[in-house]
From TrEMBL:
This is GntR family transcriptional regulator. It comes from the Bacteria. Keywords: Coiled coil, DNA-binding, Transcription, Transcription regulation. It comes from Psychrobacillus lasiicapitis. PANTHER family: REGULATORY PROTEIN GNTR HTH, TRANSCRIPTIONAL REGULATOR, GNTR FAMILY.
Amino acid sequence: MNKKTLQKAEPYYLQLQQTIKERIWSGFYKPGERLYEAQLAKHFKVSRSPVREAIRTLINEGLLTMGSNSQITVYEPSLQDVRDIYECRIALESIAVALTAEQATDEQLEELEETLRETQEAIKKEEKERIVECNVRFHELIIEISGNLRLKKIVEDLHSLTYYYRLLNTKGVQRATTILKGHSDILDAIKEKNAEKASKRLEKHTQEDLQNLIRSLSIEMI
């Protein structure tokens, strides 16, 4: 990967944070790989201060971990951690989708519908990154439409790891099509204004995602 020159439009640590994050998501930095503050500063041609701040933020987001000896390593998902985070997602998003089913406007329903159309187009073109972005957008819209700001804040705290899992979860034959079908079923229930059905369908969809991710990670760990 070519060296990336940082711009002066925003604080260096924010640019570093995003760049390192994207490299973790893309697999450029491997799970369990050790990162060195001095090497990152040299590579990006900045002082160690913004590197330190970027690392601190990414540790808070869960994408980097600090060991007892202060070694910084890339997050390495464990099956238990995956289960824990998906349990949180199911609990929070089930509430959000029920609220969305009760109060979504026609314009908001159209926004949700548009994400399905975009997903379908991305699947046809085999655009993996766009498929993931549409997946994220669908779930983010449900959170936004729910109107629960506290719930939104909690979900945002899980965003970096959730996005990472979604990237891993597009692997496999017909995975994207399965995800699209799940979203379509959820949206149908929302359109019916059936909060209970929408909640159950979201839980089913997310449980399917969880089981697929566990299978994928289990194979990689063998």
